[in-house]
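Colleagues,

For the teaching module next term, I've prepared a clean inverse folding example: a structure given as tokens, and then the sequence designed for it. I'd like students to try predicting residues themselves before seeing the answer, so please don't circulate the second half yet.
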């Protein structure tokens, strides 16, 4: 389904970036600056560590933030895998033919220097994010 896609990060819904990041930085991760994404209405910070997958902490700003309900239902949890792709539109078309549902048309993401992202869902994979190269 994603032959040419490269794994990019794991998205984790958190109540507090500060509280969660503290535990990871104590474990050797480096925390990148917190960015507010007005389109998704969330605060985002990445945690990186050599040899480990990149972690994206996503904190709701208020009840309208997309991760608010995830936190309410299951608490702090990993909720998406992100893949980097050359053409986001081609990838959407390919995934839709395999019954992935596009949840959000591609939008520029502040946390990625306005590169486009989108989210798709399949009952057998859960939530997947695409990030255009
Ligand atoms: Ni993400």
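(Answer key — instructors only)
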């Amino acid at each position: 389904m994603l032959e040419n896609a490269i794994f990019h990060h794991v998205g984790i819904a958190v109540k507090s970036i500060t509280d969660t990041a503290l535990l990871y930085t104590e474990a050797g991760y480096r925390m990148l600056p917190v960015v507010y994404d007005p389109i998704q209405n969330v605060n985002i910070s990445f945690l990186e560590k050599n040899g480990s997958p990149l972690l994206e902490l996503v904190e709701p700003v208020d009840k309208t933030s997309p991760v608010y309900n995830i936190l309410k239902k299951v608490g702090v949890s990993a909720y998406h895998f992100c893949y980097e792709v050359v053409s986001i539109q081609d990838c959407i078309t390919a995934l839709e033919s395999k019954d992935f549902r596009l949840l959000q048309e591609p939008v520029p993401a502040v946390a990625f220097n306005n590169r486009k992202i989108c989210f798709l869902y399949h009952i057998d994979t859960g939530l997947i994010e695409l990030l255009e190269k």
